[in-house]
Amino acid sequence: MCREGFLFGRKGVFYFSFMKLFKRLFKRKQKAPDKTIAPEQHIEWNNLIASYSTSVSEPMPMPKPLSEITFIYCLVGNIVEVRYNESEQKTFMGTKHFSPGTKVYCFPPQWGDGYEKIKVIGRCRKSKRFITIIIASKNVINWRLKTVYNPYIIKEMYERGWGYEESDKEDIIKLAASLNNNS
Question: Under 8 Å CB-to-CB from 119, ≥6 apart: which residues?
Answer without folding.
Answer: 106, 107, 110, 132, 133, 134
